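Annotated sample (chain length 232).
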Amino acid sequence: MKRAVVTGGTRGIGLAVVRLLADSGYAVTAFYSSNEEDASRARTAVPSAEFLRVNVTDEAAVARTFSKFESLSLLVNNAGVSSFSQVQDVSWEEFSRVMNVNAGGTFLCCKHAVKKMLSEGGSIVNVSSVWGQTGGSCESVYSASKGAVIAFSKALAKELAPAKIRVNCVCPGMIDTRMNGGLDESARAAFREEILLEREGTAEEVALAVLFLAEHGYITGEILSVNGGYYV
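Output written by the structure step:
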């Protein structure tokens, strides 16, 4: 059975990915940072998956966890945090927090997952954002962190291709998840007006894109937009 690791796997896009991979025959281990209530609900929703509390910014914890796997076929880096502020109001601590989780966590998990893939190959799918492609007003730090994920994915695809490890990236647009729950309805409506399909996406639709990239043997270095036509 193919082994998959999904970070940020207890809600939203992450949980949808965990569920779809489990239904598709993967043995899934999902990481979560701290919320035990979310983890409890996720265990009920996908009882076949394993849910582990792992801080993706703690290299010792990441290394220790990946060392326990005999093999690894797929890594999905989904763990992320948001940040909404004008740049002059962003503290260095906030900048560091967002970059450490969104870009740093992706780096650390890739670093230690690759060690398990070198002998037989594998697939890595990193979850970025439309703001990593276009930039978002009042989300400069978040946009920077997600842009870093895109650049890292492209570079890693080139570096790891000789080892038969494919690296791709999914960039969701406005998805109906808790992360976007802080936006009021007027802001969400204004965003929808810019989407060709005139609606928000679902976590399940992003999960389908992740599975497609995970299993397509002739795609690497791809940045796949899942945004309903937010920009063309």
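Annotation: The first strand starts at residue 3 and ends at 6.
Annotation: The helical segments are 12-23, 36-45, 59-67, 92-117, 130-134, 140-160, 185-193, 203-215.
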